[in-house]
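Progress report, Aim 2. The chain analyzed during this reporting quarter is listed below.
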Amino acid sequence: MPADSTAEAELQAEKDHHERARRHMAAMRETTLAIHRTYAGELDESGRNLGIGDVGIDQHFGWVMANYTVPRLADLTDRDIALFFGRIWMDDGEDFHIGRRHIRDERGDPLVLDWRAPLSEQYYRASPHDRRDVARRRRFGFQGARITGFEDEDLLAGEDFGSDILTAEIERPRTGPMRDIAATIQPEQDELIRRGAAANLCVQGAPGTGKTAVGLHRAAWLLYNYTEKLDKSGVLVVGPNEGFLNYIANVLPTLGETSVWQVTVHQLTGAHTATAADSHEAALLKHDARIADVCERAVWGHVGTAAAAGVTAEEGLLIADGGWRWRLGLAYLDDAVANARKHTRTYTAGRKAVEDAIVQGVRRQAEIRSGHSPDNKWATAIKRTPAVRGFLDRVWPKLNAKTVMKKLYSDAAFRADATRGILSEDEAALLTGKPAKPTAADLLITDEVESHLKLRDPSASFGHIVIDEAQDLSPMQCRAIARRSGKGSVTVLGDLAQGTTPWAAASWTDQMRHLGKDTSTGRTPLEGGTALENGSVEYTELTTGFRVPAVIIGLANRLLPHLGVDVAPARSLRSDGSLDRVEAADLAAGTAAAVDRALAEEGLVGVIAADGRADALRERFEGTDRVEVVAASLAKGLEFDHVVVVEPAEIVEAPATAADGTSGGGAAVDRVGLRHLYVALTRAVSGLTLVHARPLPHELGE
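Predicted structure tokens for the chain:
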């Protein structure tokens, strides 16, 4: 930190600039608020008290302006956080403060440049070996909204620089929900964040590499740089559970984005409304990719042939039209059905295509025989004739998802036809249930069936979807998300080593194919965030950690050879942190003592235990300040300053996540307990204590 009088004066100048920026942001907010009040008031008044000849405001414009200002006001809210965290001086003498949002002065000149602006890329990417026209970079230390100091890096010197401020910010204690990393984004993270809107990214990230933060900051960057496109189509964040969503909820608002929809995969598909539960075996089957083939056959298998509908080559299809009689031949009708099956994407569209082909065939006959072209009213009448309606109902009957699901689950002959060659007889027998009381997996199957029946409303698709903990998604869940992506792009984040559901992915290539974004094979993992173009997806493997200390990640890495996945071990840039092992005959007492020691330090303490034990511990620590008890199956994605892992052997032996994706229940799944332990060990950002009465799992051995 600067200590001489010149540096103190410069620090004061920076503080003064910060206060000036704060005043101007407040003025920007007042201006926006005045606009909101004006248009909201006029819009309300426009519908009242208008006399003859009065001219009201343009209601559409007024509505747009009134609603435009709402997110703008939220963006300009003072969140008691420093408005800028960096500054750069360019070779041409210009300088810019870099912060979380753009702030301008009374002349419109920038006092603070948004971190997402193209020029801000130089702040994150410049180095002594690739200056990008940056001569000097300054990083600020801050506490809340107060600037506390700064340090400068002279890039012209050509020497690498170790930033104490950057290190301190990365290692700062966690005292609540996840915070943004705008001040600490690393070059390899910035490269991923700033990939174009069309890019589909798949990021395999070891614990502590910042993959979740990368995904959220990428969402904010895309909304800033592709406003027109994404304001219309929207951005969606899909997380593993509600606890995780609560944890990340404040990140995007602090980055100036409040319009992103954040949901769990269960909420996205409606599975959270399920009123029944599957057996473990049934759930495994219903989440299997083969069920998509069963659904396709269950829908399209209803399509018949003209002959099966009773049409003969001799008679054809006779259609009465007033005093006229029209006849369509067997070959023409079979061609119409075949063409509809080949060229339409949904069952409902196919039925309409056959109907239109029938009308077109009759129209040609009518034009030849009557000498004129019938109008649309005539066409509608033809469609309503008993012959046409009867033929369509026999060869291409109307369907809805409820009808298909009922037949699939209750009609043994129909189920046998739909599953033949796809499932074994024993597997097919698991497809039973009551559509009126669906399980979470049944709702996924219903969603798949509906996708074959009709196209989704375009307004229900998103321009970009960020999917976190994606390794835990089943193929059927992936397909449900893919249908909501449409022609949009995705950012897929996860760690195969942390896959803990019964259907956890073993390969990112397979997972991206289920998400509809890659048909290539093979994967080449790369170090350091460098992306590889592979088909339609850019795959990246991040292994450099900024969050978990080396002593802790080293312990967790011992589990990797036993987890059954091909991922590189993580390495940490942090040499601080602590690791303790406490053997205690009384686990409750030993845990309490470990928590008391952790509370002597600053930050949040997490107690992680097997799901059954966590319930009892939660009662023990209820109301204790800065302590949160978490079941091992729900710890994924969270982080704490100090973590107390209770009886690791119990975590290893605990049953898998339930068959429906919720906590508890389910049959044991190979290695899932070890993966839960891997997750638990890597939640700590400062210290880790293992409290155990039984021997530690041998996989943790030296």
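Residues 5-46 form the longest helix (42 residues). The longest strand covers residues 134-143. These observations will guide the mutagenesis work planned for the next reporting period.
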